[in-house]
């Protein structure tokens, strides 16, 4: 065994904290990389929620680096065994780590909210209110941490006048739990409305509900922080609170990435992410995901162009353009026939066109179809 190897003992938790910090950061990096790779593979582009979770990861990486600096200066050891220099470095690193931790959680939550909005437009006001609450929560927490102690050393809470740090971190953690519970509740409601088999519905609810593990980690953070914040030996007594903080940060990022992983997406018949992205890019006209009451008609417009010399509408000679919105004003020399169907059980409609040509349409979803043919070629 190397003489320079540091062992984990009852009086030295530095190696343990350091190992856990880098392991959890690695898990966060792998989760975000897997999410981004899946999104690029299935959709071909990144959206706002992907950039938000990437920003969250960058803040988490900075927080882990700050925690690593703490460890290198003796965090996890008793304060009476450390000199003033390492103690000051530990306090400064903790100060930086706290601000980065808050920012990382904020962007991870915002990423989840944007994802929820993309699934259920009908809850936009609810999610917007929650989004504003999270932003205000993060901003106020950042200001509180930045000015937690008297200037010019706001990071030095040993022997200096500071606000009640126990009360602040309790408030911050409880609010963190409440916002996560709100996110889980909204996602559960969305999953309940998805029209699919019970097994898949349970899988979806399980994936969305995985964020409850963040709540459990925050509970541990509250317990260990409240027990150690007023300790006279903060460099040692806070090691458990530091580990729980890393767990909260990692789980917040990980649970925001799980719904984007390919095995989960492939379990959904509608392909939640792909359908949403294609819809927003204008390549499909479905007004939402396969959720909600299917008896409600939907209005979706498409354009179907057929060459003018094919009056019999034979598919082998027809030309289908990319689905686009119906043009309200037909081009000169074209006659336009509009056929509208309502979603519901399969029914038959006989529709008489402008040229007295009847077409039989059997459809399940709502479609507005414009059939364009050059005048003089259709009977």
TrEMBL record:
A Pfam family this chain is assigned to: Fung_rhodopsin
Residue intervals of the Rhodopsin domain: 34-266
Transmembrane segments: 19-38, 50-69, 95-116, 128-148, 168-190, 202-224
InterPro entries: Rhodopsin_dom_fungi
UniProt key word GTP-binding: no
Keywords noted in UniProt: Membrane, Transmembrane, Transmembrane helix
Protein name as it appears in the record: Rhodopsin domain-containing protein
Species of provenance: Amorphotheca resinae ATCC 22711
The organism's taxonomic lineage, starting at the top: Eukaryota, Fungi, Dikarya, Ascomycota, Pezizomycotina
């Amino acid at each position: 065994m190397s003489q320079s190897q540091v062992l984990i003992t009852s009086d030295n938790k530095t190696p343990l904290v350091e190992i856990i910090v880098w392991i959890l950061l690695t898990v966060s990096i792998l989760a975000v990389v897997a999410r981004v790779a899946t999104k690029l593979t299935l959709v071909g582009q990144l959206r706002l929620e992907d950039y938000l979770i990437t920003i969250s990861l960058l803040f988490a990486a900075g927080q882990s680096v700050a925690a690593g600096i703490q460890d290198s200066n003796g965090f996890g050891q008793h304060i009476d065994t450390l000199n003033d220099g390492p103690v000051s470095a530990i306090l400064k690193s903790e100060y930086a780590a706290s601000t980065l931790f808050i920012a990382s959680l904020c962007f991870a939550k915002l990423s989840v909210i944007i994802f929820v909005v993309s699934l259920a437009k009908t809850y936009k006001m609810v999610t917007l209110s929650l989004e504003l609450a999270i932003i205000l929560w993060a901003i106020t927490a950042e200001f509180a941490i930045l000015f937690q102690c008297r200037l010019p050393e706001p990071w030095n809470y040993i022997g200096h006048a500071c606000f009640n740090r126990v009360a602040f971190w309790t408030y911050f953690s409880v609010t963190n739990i409440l916002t996560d519970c709100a996110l889980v509740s909204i996602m559960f409601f969305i999953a309940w409305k998805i029209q699919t088999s019970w097994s898949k519905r349970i899988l979806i609810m399980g994936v969305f509900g995985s964020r409850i593990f963040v709540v459990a980690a925050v509970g541990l953070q509250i317990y260990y922080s409240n027990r150690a914040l007023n300790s006279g030996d903060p460099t040692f007594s806070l090691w458990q609170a530091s580990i729980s903080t890393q767990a909260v940060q990692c789980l917040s990022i990980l649970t925001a990435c799980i719904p984007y992983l390919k095995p989960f997406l492939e379990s959904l018949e509608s392909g939640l992410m792909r359908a949403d992205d294609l819809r927003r890019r204008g390549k499909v006209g479905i007004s939402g995901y396969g959720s909600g009451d299917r008896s409600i008609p939907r209005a979706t417009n498409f354009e179907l162009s057929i060459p003018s010399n094919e009056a019999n509408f034979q598919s082998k000679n027809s030309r289908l353009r990319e689905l686009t919105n119906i043009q309200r004003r037909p081009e000169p020399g074209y006659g336009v026939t509009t056929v509208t169907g309502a979603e519901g059980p399969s029914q038959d409609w006989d529709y008489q066109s402008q040229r007295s040509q009847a077409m039989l349409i059997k459809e399940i979803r709502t479609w507005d179809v414009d059939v364009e043919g050059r005048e003089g070629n259709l009977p």
